[in-house]
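Bumping with the actual sequence this time:
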Amino acid sequence: MRRVLARRERHGWSWAELSRRSGLPVWKLRWWSRRLAKRRSVRRSKRTFAPVEIVASSREGGTPLEVVTTSGVRVLVPANFNAEHLRRVMKALEPGC
């Protein structure tokens, strides 16, 4: 359906013209257009900044870091973590990160 709707954008066709060329009713084309647009905005909205609270360390050597992904997964990271390793872990947990 994305390809069909992309033809409308590419050629500047009206809904009626796209309907005639694709053989699909206008209502169905418009419904899919709205649905796909909604999915794009939901995907984009997941990639937002999260509030961060900075607290003073109570121990010498640093306090572990707790990272919470957008899906609610919590990762406790030691104070002397390897940044590259953490990046790979986060990417595995949340492909959009």
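The tokens above came from a reply further down the thread. The helical segments are 2-11, 15-22, 26-45, 83-93.
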